[in-house]
Structures are given as C-alpha cells and as structure tokens.
Amino acid sequence: MTTVLAYGDSLTWGSCPETGGRHPVSHRWPDVLSAALGDGVTVITNGLRGRTTAYDEYLADCDRNGVRVLPTVLNTHAPIDLVIILLGANDMKPHICGTSIGALQGVRRLTQIAKNHMQGLSNGHRAKVLIVAPPPLVESDDLEFRAMFDGGIAESKKLDGLYEKLAKDMDVAFFDAGTVAEASTLDGVHLDAENTKKIGAALAPIVKKLLAV
Question: Does pTM surpass 0.85?
C-alpha cells in the first residue's frame, strides 16, 4: 500500500467559510485526491486549523507549530511515501509572522524534515515531497479576519514564486493551488466546496506521476 500524507492547516482540514464548520468529507481536497488515486493509495489527512509553518501561537489548546509536530506525525503514520505540504496562510497573520519570507523559511525547514526523516524505520525509507502554495488571501468584509490578516494579501501573493523556487532548489515537486482555486470573500482565507475540490482534482495527476500509480 502506498501512503500519502496531506499536511496542512484549515485549508486541508476543510474549513467552510459559509458555516464556520467543516466541509463534508467528499468536498475536502485530500479526500477528492484519494478518490482519484484509487484503492492502491491511502491519503492521510493531517490538517490543523491555525497551523503555521514553524511558528508558535498559543491561542488554542493544541500545538500549531508545523515544524515541531511533523516528525511525530511522520513516525505515527510510517511508512509514508509522499508528503504534501500546504502551509503558509496562517503565517500571514502579523502577530505570528506576517511575511512571505518567514513562510518560505518555515516551508524550507518542513521540506528538510520530510525529505530526510527516517520515520522510525530501519530500512532508510524516505518520503518524496510536494510543496503546494496556498491560494492568496483576498479582500473580505469580515472585520475580524481583515484585522487578523492585516497586510497579508500582498505578502500571500508572493508565496507561489518563492515556493516554486524553493522546490526547484530542493529537488521536490511543486504546485500552485492559486492556479485552480481562490479564497472566499466571506472571510478572505478559506475555500468554498468547489474550490477545495478543485485542489484535490488538480493534484491527482501530479501525485500519480510522482508515485508511478
């Protein structure tokens, strides 16, 4: 069995901007990807709302630092053949990081861990990595979200170029989710059902090629 880890934040968890809850399973991009890949591939969803690439944030009763948690997640689900990293949106919050370069540095460290971590196995198994740039933030009438991500729209628009170059430099795969999906204007960050499904569908041929399935 081939195993894919979808490692991300609320975009991977499936936050619904209309309800504030969670999209049905069939609408979440990792599950759309799983259906497209078929029975021979297991896609594990590890999406945590508020997760950052590598920064501490103490406003929830969980650890939102993606770098600190990733090694444990890799060992938990080993052996993993491909890690899909879709993070960076929460780094755009000015009280956490607020810059695209900060998100880039976090994703660089995540990629280093995913590529080199032995997942607790003695056979030297390593995962492939696919970096996904999140869709840029957009304008919203939600006052709290606008304040929470103040200045983030411009910075988020830099992520695709920065992540693409990083992927090339580190010899891993890359996809820009902003080419197929856009954030909802309801909160400026999250994806409606159609847009999250588009990400899963777009990733399917890329993942099939990477895993030769």
Answer: yes
